[in-house]
Design goal:
Oligomer: single chain
Number of helices: 1
Number of strands: 0
Distance between the termini: 121 Å
Order of helices and strands: H
Strand content: under 5%
Helix content: over 70%
Length: 86
């Protein structure tokens, strides 16, 4: 019975040591997860900002294209009249 008691005490010490090691690993994993979560949030914010910038670029490009199309539409009658005069 004394031997069982000593075996139980040794096993308990081993388990406590393993428990401490696992607790430290868990803390490190939680810190790493927090770091990765912050990086992901930063990437999401940058992506959102880039998307808004892209939307603005699209809007400006569409305005420029509309302006060019209006200029071309103004030129078509002039070209037609030049072709008719030949």
């Amino acid at each position: 019975m004394v031997q069982d008691y000593r075996t139980a005490i040794e096993k308990n010490k081993k388990l406590e040591t393993e428990n401490k090691s696992l607790a430290l690993s868990l803390e490190e994993a939680i810190k790493h997860q927090e770091t990765l979560s912050k990086r992901l949030e930063t990437i999401n914010q940058e992506s959102l900002r880039d998307t808004k910038g892209l939307d603005q670029w699209k809007t400006e490009t569409r305005k420029e294209i509309r302006g060019i199309m209006k200029e071309v539409e103004k030129c078509i009658p002039q070209v037609e009249s030049l072709l008719e005069n030949k």
